[in-house]
UniProtKB/TrEMBL annotation:
SUPFAM superfamilies: FAH (SSF56529). One of its GO terms (molecular function) is metal ion binding. Pfam families: FAA_hydrolase. It comes from the Bacteria. GO terms for biological process: small molecule metabolic process. Residues 74-277 form the Fumarylacetoacetase-like C-terminal domain. Keywords: Metal-binding. Belongs to the FAH family. This is 2-keto-4-pentenoate hydratase/2-oxohepta-3-ene-1,7-dioic acid hydratase in catechol pathway.
């Protein structure tokens, strides 16, 4: 099932049609997309038992927003692809990769413009997992049970702010407005033949700059959920950015960063694509 945020309303997308959940459920469920994660099992049961034929309406994709717009926690994983660690000259082990956050004010939807701040803004396509059931000290075997679904993400990063000085500011450098796009919708795990092996690509001005498979993660999604939940209780609606593969602009010779007028397309097979145009931020 594809679960979407259509102009701020919880929606199920079927083919090219959109079903407004509040209306289809006769107000059993709230229109707020974030609220559904606290009732995710109940919602999934209702959706499986309900004939939604006749409720669908045509919709404009530019009205889609982030499928989890107000998470209580955002976890972002660094160096979770060996190829990315190698291109930046970093050594990694097979334990839990470094974890930081992106602040929720950076969240934006799957289509539109991103205003570039001063500095060197880089791209990082990522698979994003959204928690659907509370996870506390779960094991790898049961971790998928706690995941509501998967979506496409971009971990946009202003490298000068991120790497300045002897104590890098990963979270701040990755949290400018619009630096956490997600979408176009959330796809439930049952929709995939293998949710641990998906192709993800990032295209800059029609040139593919990142191309990998999520099966190449050092720490796959079940292990990430298990290891994070040993320390932190994961709540419904929480977000995990699972890391990016090789191909970022910082590693190129010469380095290549985003400029006004660039078009960035982030895509994951079985989920869909996001499209963002870069513009210059207005001075404040």
């Amino acid at each position: 099932m594809k679960i979407a945020n259509l102009a701020g309303r919880l929606t199920i997308v079927t083919d090219s049609r959109a079903v407004d959940v509040e209306h289809a459920s006769d107000f059993k469920f709230d229109a707020d997309p974030q609220a559904i994660y606290d009732r995710f099992d109940e919602f999934m049961e209702w959706a499986a038992q309900t004939d939604l034929t006749g409720y669908g309406r045509a919709y404009s994709p530019d009205r889609l927003r982030a499928p989890a717009p107000r998470p209580s926690q955002i976890f972002a994983v660094g160096f979770n692809y060996r190829s990315h660690a190698q291109e930046l000259g970093t050594t990694v082990d097979d334990g839990l990769p470094p974890v930081f956050t992106k602040f929720a004010s950076a969240i934006t939807g799957p289509f539109g413009s991103v205003a570039l701040p001063e500095g060197s803004v880089d791209w990082e396509v990522e698979l994003v997992a959204v928690i659907g059931r509370r996870a506390w000290r779960v094991d790898d075997v049961h971790a998928w049970h706690h995941i509501a679904g998967l979506t496409v993400g971009q971990d946009l990063s202003e490298r000068q702010a991120q790497l300045r000085g002897s104590t890098p500011q990963f979270s701040l450098g990755k949290s400018y407005p619009g630096f956490a796009p997600m979408g176009p919708w959330l796809v439930t795990p049952d929709e995939f033949d293998d949710p641990d092996d998906l192709r993800l690509t990032c295209t800059l001005n029609a040139d593919i700059v990142q191309d990998a498979r999520t099966s190449q993660m050092i720490t796959p999604i079940p292990a990430l959920v298990a290891r994070l939940s040993r320390v932190v209780a994961l709540s419904p609606g929480d977000i995990i950015y699972t890391g990016t593969p090789a191909g970022v602009g910082l590693s190129r010779q010469p380095a290549r960063f985003l400029n006004a007028g660039d078009e960035l397309v982030s895509q994951i097979d079985g989920i869909g694509a996001m499209r963002h145009n870069m513009i210059v931020a207005h001075p404040t």
